[in-house]
Amino acid sequence: MIDKDFDLTRRSFIDHVLKASAGAGMAAAAPWAAFAASAAPGQKDRVRLGVIGTGDRGRTLIRNIAKTRNCAVAAICDDYEPNLVKGRALVPGGTPAFADHRAMLDAGGIDAVVIATPLHVHAAQTLDSFDAGVHVWCEKAMARTIADCSAMVKRAQDRRKVLQIGHQRMFNPTYLNALKRVKAGEIGPVTQIRASWHRNTSWRRAVPAGSDLERKINWRLYRDSSAGLMTELATHQLQVGNWFLEAPPTRVIGSGSICFWKDGREVYDQVALVFDYAGGRKLVYTSLLNNARYGCEEQIQGSKGTIEPELGRIYQEKPPGVPALRKMGEDVQAGRKRPVPIGGATWFPELPVTTPGESLGWGEYDETMLQFEVFGEAVRSGVPAPGLLRQAYHASVTSLMGEDAMDSGRPVDWPSSLVDI
Amino acid sequence: MGTRIELHLFGTAEDGSMIEARRAIEAVDDALTIHRPSPTTALNDSLAAGSPAAIDDPLLFDALVEIDHAYQAMEGLFDPAADVSTGGAGWNMVLFDREDARIRALRPLALDFGGFGKGFALDRACDVLRRADRVSALLSAGESSIAVVGEHPLGGRWPFAIPHPLQPDRILLELELEDSALSISSTVGEGTYAPDRAPMIRPGDGTIVTGRRTAVACARSGARAEMMSTALLVADGDQAKRFLDGEPARRFLFDFTGETGISVPPAETVIR
């Protein structure tokens, strides 16, 4: 794609975001969307970002940062040399590279950091960055513990710095349009969300023979460094659940197990949880790593219809009418009277609807770019985009309370000691 | 009911009667369903436990009165009661006291109104429309249960054509209705192939009806049309003849046993 095409696509994308965020109730439900769509970042004096972590995800972020109009990678950092080498290949020659994030912070020359490291070090790197006077964009989930999530929020507030977490669905126009249609009452009151992220993969990465890097490379598989499916996958969808149900859950019950991949890992390879929300509403969540049939989806279910944003479809509960009877109505309108054929199917099993539904509209785009442009504008002004951090904080807490419920085998209530945002 | 209901009103502008008719149908569903808690499931709990029960719900009471009356008239061939252990039918094991609105069973039983509920619901909706002076309306419950109010909007009777269940491009039967109801019951055809659909059970001995039949019944009441089409479907030769002889223009039974998709004139298959 040439630059002009890309710019047109970007304009179209932002135009869609703007349209989606203009609906009734959207200003309160997605206040960052209007901020994002109306931002007009210039191309000069780009915000200088130091990227901590240049593994697969970090390098994807570097590519997205390069598409923005207001951000540039000014330094990179990784304590695993092979990743740092790959990171260097994506940035201009001479870009400073570090093996330790504190050295990068001490060197200066950056306005903010982008953290794409294992979960358990997010909090320390974030706090160090705030103490060094720079803003922070951090990958989801926020941190390994709820206490660490809260500490990150508190330190951002104390230092008056921007803390933004990578929940890109909040910038996705399909999700925004889905929310707009929910707000317009198209699927009736939402009473249940059924969400799943099913993959068929071990999640295990190859470790160099003879090395002691197992826990470093496969950090997602060990409890010290990850809550597994809950923090790496579920947190995205739990954010969507909280967003569409307009509040965090009140309680969760759950069960997790290492059922298929009995390879020494410590985190569950399948989880099933029920999150309670005010008014009896529920989010039913499953994730597993040995069957991909049902993939990744959030089924947002109301009394009048269902939205599946990953598929980009909306389905109405009311089935289409009987063709013969519809034709009879047309005949009457036209003054024709003829026999009405009847006697077809008499019984409709309550099976999954196989009708295609309707498109929610709007094609693919990498919304990660837009969230970096928003971050860039927030760093320039020193004011975070409204609503984002609250969504992310609550999503991380939701995923971690789910882990707690599975580990303890008991219902876990929403914590009462969170930081106000 | 697991059935799609359609209401088509013609003539005067909508006056709220459509909504009232819909609510009448929903009220019947709420009272008679066995797929979620309802007065009927509460009654079934009592009957299964061998306990007497008071019928407090007026719709359930009316339905039981209708069934109790029809059970005798249809020689026991429409039977909504099933023995809990054997699955065999058994309204004759039910003691229904209309005066005191109480019921009990001589052995553990459960009620399943099945298609009767569709006709009964259409009757209630038709009553609403007639009270609202609607002069022309068609109501459909899953296409196998039809009721019409008044004349066709273009005048005269409502014409219907019932397709041949084995050869959908052929017409099995054409008939006309006015201010009455129609029910089709069949052991063959597209609608009978739904997964997990329960087979038709013959009251009395509890055997499955294996014959390939389609029965059609017309009546002023949708509930009675439903019960009669069911009774015709399970009737033996003598019973069917008695029912058909009484109403030759309103009851029909087609037997496709042995038919393998070869065209057979409908007249040759009507048992009369």
Key descriptive features of the protein:
heterodimer, A: 421 residues, alpha/beta, Rossmann fold, Dihydrodipicolinate Reductase, domain 2, 2 domains, nine-stranded mixed sheet, six-stranded parallel sheet, 38% helix, globular, B: 272 residues, alpha+beta, T-fold, three-stranded antiparallel sheet, 13 strands, 32% helix, disordered C terminus
Walk me through this protein's architecture:
The complex is a heterodimer of chains A (421) and B (272). Chain A has helices at residues 3-20, 26-29, 31-38, 56-67, 81-88, 101-107, 122-131, 146-159, 173-183, 214-217, 229-244, 323-333, 367-381, 388-408; strands at 47-52, 71-77, 97-98, 112-115, 135-139, 163-166, 190-198, 251-257, 270-276, 282-288, 296-302, 305-308, 313-316, 340-341, 358-359, 412-413. Chain A is α/β, with parallel strands linked by helices. Chain A folds into 2 domains: 3-168 and 366-388, NAD(P)-binding Rossmann-like Domain (Rossmann fold), CATH 3.40.50; 171-308 and 396-413, Dihydrodipicolinate Reductase, domain 2, CATH 3.30.360.10. In chain A, helix 11 packs across helix 14 (388-408). Chain A is globular, with a radius of gyration of 24 Å. Chain B is an alpha+beta fold and 272 residues long. Chain B has a domain at 153-269: ApbE-like domains (T-fold). Helix content of chain B is 32%, strand content 24%. Chain B is built from 7 helices and 13 strands. Chain B has a 6-stranded antiparallel β-sheet with strand order 1-7-8-11-12-13. In chain B, strand 7 and strand 8 (145-150) form a beta hairpin. In chain B, helix 1 runs antiparallel to helix 4 (115-131) and helix 4 (115-131) runs antiparallel to helix 5 (222-234). Classes of the chains: A alpha/beta (421), B alpha+beta (272). The A-B interface holds A 319, 321-322, 324-325, 328-329, 332, 335-351 and B 2-4, 6, 8, 10, 115, 138, 140, 142-146, 152-156, 158-163, 165, 171-172, 174, 182, 184, 186, 189-191, 194-197. Strand 14 of chain A pairs parallel with strand 9 of chain B, so a sheet runs across the interface.
